[in-house]
Amino acid sequence: MKVISVLMSVFNENEEELRSSVDSILNQSFADFEFIITIDNPANEMLNDILSEYARLDSRIVLIKNQENIGLAESLNRAASVARGKYFCRMDADDISVPDRLQKQHEVISKKDYDLVCSSFYYIDENGKVIGDNKECYSSSGIKRIIKYKNVIHHPTVIMKADAFYKVGGYNNFPCAQDYDLWLRMVKYNYRFYMMKDKLIYYRIRPESTSFKKRYLQQCTIEYIQLINRKKLYKFSPEDYWRYLANKKVDNSNIADDFKKYMDLYASAKKDLKEGNILSFVKKFLKVYIHSKYFRPNIIRVLYTSIIRMTDIWLVNKGFLKEES
Fold first, then answer.
1. Dihedral sign, CA of 130, 200, 79, 71?
2. Per-residue DSSP letters for 149-185?
3. pLDDT in tens, 244-284
């Protein structure tokens, strides 16, 4: 039995990104792990050739080849089904882990007996250049309060107990936001979360990523996950989910384009606020709030989570709340 099973699914990554990602795991300072990779694009011969060669040279790699494309959630479930590790570590095929990521996360999750540990991270562009870093870091209690309204756990940074993953039933087959659904079900079981301030991965941002191409679908999926969580409907019903999407008209390109338009404007408004351009921020903010019904709940959510974060900081500074370490 291995201590850690690293779970990865690959679909259409380019060779350079894939090799950088795989090498960053194989070169970890922590040695007691297995690396389970699911190929979810059987038609991509390049992926198959590269990963087959890796598997031939390194016995820690376990390669799974799907007969057809089944999506990220089911591909990760397939990887988990053959995993032998006490802990599952997530890794995306275009991200890069720092050399001591597994060592640091294993030390925290094993010594403190957390059920899930995530971390901060760097942003990199398509060429691997660092373009920023994640500034948000929440206390364990803050995560539990915020997670019902906003996903603050970054999926590729996670290490979690395999037993906890199995107990909640693994990933439900959502086309996106499947991680958010998993975290909310873990909250139901009162599992313990912890966020490390260490930046342990380089997270790649690309314009063609799912979060950019299918923003409206992703937002509707998040809303549905929050809805079934509030109603405590933890058993996934694909029929109910797709009926919800049909009611939201996710296939309507005009609605999706309108959603993207105001999401871009909302992002621009937040940038103006950070840069101190208050007048520009107010103009854009009001335009989004007045014209886009989709972002009114989002704006309220952002205000709520900001208040929680500021409250956490104040409580920690005053000594009323002790951050877990």
1. negative
2. TS--S-GGG-EEEHHHHHHHTS----SS-HHHHHHHH
3. 999 989 888 888 888 888 888 888 888 888 888 889 988 98
For residue 47, the SS3 value is helix
Residues forming CATH 3.90.550.10 domain(s) in the chain: 4-209
Q: Does domain 4-209 have CATH number 3.90.550.10?
A: yes
Using alpha carbons only, give the angle 20, 22, 27 rounded to the nearest 5 degrees: 90
96-97 and 87-90: which strand pairing? unpaired
Q: Tell me how far the alpha carbon of residue 267 is from its chain's centroid.
A: 19
The DSSP secondary-structure symbol of 65 reads E
Give me the sign of the Cα torsion angle 156, 157, 162, 166: negative
Place of tokens 């693994």: 170
What stretches in the chain show pLDDT beneath 50? 210-212, 325
Phi/psi for 301 (5° steps) reads -65, -45
